[in-house]
Amino acid sequence: MTQKITRSWWPDLAAIAAFVVLTVALARGHLLDLDQRVADWALADQSSPVYWTARVFNYLGQGAQVLMPVALILTFLVWRRTRSIRAGLPFAAAFVLTYFTIGPAKIFFDRAAPRFTGPDKTVLFNPAASGDKAMSYPSGHVANSLVWYAVIALLLTWLLGRVLTRWETFLVRVLPVAIVFVTTIYTGFHWVTDSVAGLFLGLVVARLLERIPWFRLPLGPLDRPPTAW
Questions:
Q1: For 10-214, CATH number?
Q2: Nearest to 151 by CA among 164, 138, 137, 135
Q3: In the structure, what pLDDT confidence band is assigned to residue 227 with cuts at 50, 70 and 90?
Q4: CA–CA–CA angle 201, 216, 163 (5° rounding)
Q5: pLDDT, tens digit, for every residue of 146-175?
Q6: Mean pLDDT of 220-224
Q7: What is the mean pLDDT of residues 130-150?
Q8: What is the pLDDT of residue 131?
Q9: Average pLDDT of the chain?
Q10: What per-residue confidence (pLDDT) applies to 126?
Q11: DSSP category for residue 167
Q12: DSSP string for residues in 159-201
């Protein structure tokens, strides 16, 4: 089976630079008014059918409840077909990379969510931010969706035995992320800049996964060779 390896580093470097610039701007107090205005609009009506529809679609970005179980099911199907431990590598790599990048970033920047009722809720490094309404920056929903849908797309290519078409790639990798990006803001779970930062960070992690030569990794004599796929 062939694999298309991501090689160019320019999008990665641009995303990292954009994340740094955005973070510095927020730390210096810029864009906070924009975040607050959008959040005020989003939180003004939380009972309409549009809101609840958006909240349902926002589950497309739930890592532990939706994305990881789907990825695990696909991983099992690939393993059952190949009987190779190589089938579990994308899931394991995605879990480790998100655990050591997105999670620590949310804890480090210590930003409250729009629903937080304490002081200075838009600022980074807020000592009053705590609990389940803190750790808002960057958006884990957006970042995780970029990473896990990349894994899902990879596993689907292994199951189908071919590269996904552009339309299939759009449906699997682009549309769900766009929906999560919009609904995460509209439901008031994250500030606008949280979601933008999650987009930058998730793009870097997703592209890092695409750089791994899954079929050339030396896994020992017990693993089936790539030709068994």
A1: 1.20.144
A2: 164
A3: low
A4: 65
A5: 999 999 999 999 999 888 999 999 999 999
A6: 63
A7: 87
A8: 60
A9: 89
A10: 87
A11: H
A12: HHTSPPPHHHHIIIIIHHHHHHHHHHHHTTSS-HHHHHHHHHH
Q: How far is CA 223 from the centre of its chain?
A: 30
Q: Rounded to whole angstroms, what are the CA distances from 74 to 67, 129, 203?
A: 11, 37, 22
The structural domains of the chain, with segments of one domain joined by +, span: 10-214
- Do 149 and 208 form a contact (C-beta atoms < 8 A)? no
The pair of structure tokens assigned to 142 is 């957006």
Q: Which two tokens stand for residue 46?
A: 């939380």
Residue located via tokens 């994308």: 90
Q: Residue 100: helix, strand or coil by DSSP?
A: helix
**Measured distance CA(206)–CA(225) in Å, rounded:** 25
Alpha-carbon gap, residue 186 to 176, rounded angstroms:
15
Task: Please count the residues of the chain.
Answer: 229
The SS3 call for residue 30 is: coil
- What does the alpha-carbon distance between residue 199 and residue 137 come to, in Å, rounded to a whole number? 11
